[in-house]
Amino acid sequence: MGAVQHTETGVDAVYDRYSRLVQDLLSVPVALVTKVADDHQRFIGAVGLPEPWQTDRTTPLSHSFCQYVRSEDAPLVVNDAREIETLRDNLAIGDLGVVAYAGVPLRDAEGTTIGALCAIDTEPRTWEDRELAVLHDISLACTAHLRSSAAATEATAARERAERESRRTAALLQMAEAFVATTTIREVLEAAGRLGELVGAGAVSIGVPDSTGALVWHAKDGTQTTASAEHWDGLRRAMPATPIFTTSPEALGPELFELLPAEVTANATGAATVLPLRVENRTIGLAAIVWSDTLAVPAADQLTLTALARYTSVALDRAQLLEARQNAAHHLQRSMLTEVPEIAGLPIRAVYRTAHVADEVGGDWYDVLELADGRVAVAVGDVAGHDIEAASAMGQLRFALRTLLWSRRDEPAAILSALDDLNSSIGPDALTTVVLAILGAPESDGSRTLTWSNAGHLPPILQRSGQPAALMEAAPDLMLGVSPGRSRADHMTRLEPGDTFVLYTDGLVEQRDADVAERLSALTSALDEHDPLRPDEIARILTDGRDRGDDVVLLTLRVDTAP
Question: Taking a C-beta distance cutoff of 8 angstroms, is the pair 522, 542 a contact?
Fold first, then answer.
């Protein structure tokens, strides 16, 4: 027999058929399959009841004979309830017309009596043994169906629980992997903003103090609000070390509720949680979450959120450490780049732009040095690597190059050879590309000789007065750090008044999914179309809006006419 479930009453059509079977075989006007609770009884099967009981399918125990079958765990057979002292005042007699009653227990899988299968007559009746035997046999079949239905329901519930847990586990794994992949505070906040999605929450805000001590609340939609350092201190004092789960934000107490972000307090229509983000007994931030239609956060969701708060805490702490390290590296790198000196008749300009990749720092550098004999040295270089070691190596090489330029009157190739020897023998032993150019003292018309040597770097650019900019295509030598002691070549040209000489690093022209030759052509075109002594403008044109993963250096100089 197929079962039809009436969800509005919890009635199974099978139990109505058991009731009709009792009604037909025992020739009674009313037959019921009853489940008895502590304060009411429910008719999961019923035929013949007067209205509204037949439709409502439930009565209080004041109208119940079946409660005695349950409490006594035994059949109850009554020929005329009006003559039984314990039953004569039962409201079932007047309201339901119960006079004669025969009920037998229905038991669950553990053998506990949970209700009764009963036959009811509205007139006094003497129940025959045959009738009671039939009622007992039907009760066994009804009990078997009750047990199989309960088992099927439990199996379905268990399967649904397993599916929910599987989805939850998969989501936790996905979130854990997302947090592992984060390297910046912004990435951590984006991952943490998805916390509420796993548990069906509404508003989610993550509070993280900035470098000034002010607390910045990051909402799930990307908006931010900033509170004072005093606000953050107040939250830390009011916040316990463990998560708080309540029925509403107000239930957190005024000392904490008043310090929460407006997004949370304005949506205080359901349950709320505040999760401290803690690492090694330090509270480094907070997560505040509210629900719109949930008054109690299920225990499983509490465990999920607590686990995710730990993931967030570790990822946030790691990102803050990385950010501090990168800030130190960038500060080190910038501190080594001195201001370009003002040299009469030789305007020189340089621009340095950091990479878009926040967790990287490069070894790019530039230098301009006015020598005692009137010559001017200019250099642009790039140490391989994108970390603090590369920045440190850049600093050492730059200062070593300065020392060599001050102490020796050699041409660029000899200077670079000496620098390569220092690099390999006393450190930093770094792979480095560099172009070193030395301009001779100005002649009477302002012109200067230019001698340069290229250690594996991109070619310099020369823009003759009134002519298009062009690459200086002399073949480069090996970069520093590959084969010290190898001979290096010098190249020479003459810069006339109005000529422009340009040096740069590869971050300006090497872009993902872009041909270097095309990018070099774009650079020379930009020099033709814009003032070369505005390298900041040229660098912006060539790099803004692009996924720049490397630092950029652009240095330009022009020879002016002698006064």
Answer: yes
| Alpha carbon distance 431, 159 (integer Å) | 60
Please, where are the H alpha helices in 49-125? 53-56, 66-72, 92-95
Q: In 117-228, which residue ranges form alpha helices assigned H by DSSP?
A: 129-180, 185-192
pLDDT at 7: 37
Q: Which two tokens stand for residue 368?
A: 């301009």
Work out the burial of residue 89: count CB atoms within 10 Å of its CB; fewer than 13 is exposed, 13-18 middle, 19 or more buried: exposed
pLDDT tens per residue across span 402-459: 999 999 999 999 999 999 999 887 666 789 999 999 999 999 999 999 999 999 999 9
User: Which CA distances in Å does 113 have to 30, 34, 93, 276?
Assistant: 22, 11, 24, 49
Taking only Cα atoms into account, the Rg of the chain, rounded to an integer number of angstroms, comes to 43
Query: Where in 291-431 does DSSP place strands (E)?
Result: 348-353, 363-370, 376-383
- Residue in the block written with tokens 């009674």: 28
| Omega cis (within 30) before 29 | no
CB 198 within 8 A of CB 304: yes
Sign of CA dihedral 259, 264, 269, 275: negative
| Token representation of residue 363 | 């070894």
Helix 516-529 × helix 535-543 angle, to 10°: 140
| 261 alpha-carbon distance from chain centroid | 20
Determine the 3-state secondary structure of 287 from DSSP: strand
Encode pLDDT of 139-187 as tens digits. Answer: 999 999 988 888 888 888 888 877 777 777 776 777 777 777 788 877 8
Query: What is the pTM for the complete model shown?
Result: 0.52
pLDDT tens digit string along 65-98? Answer: 999 999 999 999 999 999 999 999 999 999 999 9
Rounded CA-CA distance 339/341 in Å is: 6
Of 295, 303, 290, the C-alpha closest to 261 is 290
Q: List b or e across 108-146, with b for residues whose CB sees 16 or more CB atoms inside 10 angstroms.
A: eeeeebbbbbbbbbbeebebeeebbebbeebbeebbebb
Mean pLDDT of 514-527: 90
Q: Using alpha carbons only, give the angle 252, 256, 257 rounded to the nearest 5 degrees.
A: 70
Distance CA(212)–CA(234), nearest Å, equals 16
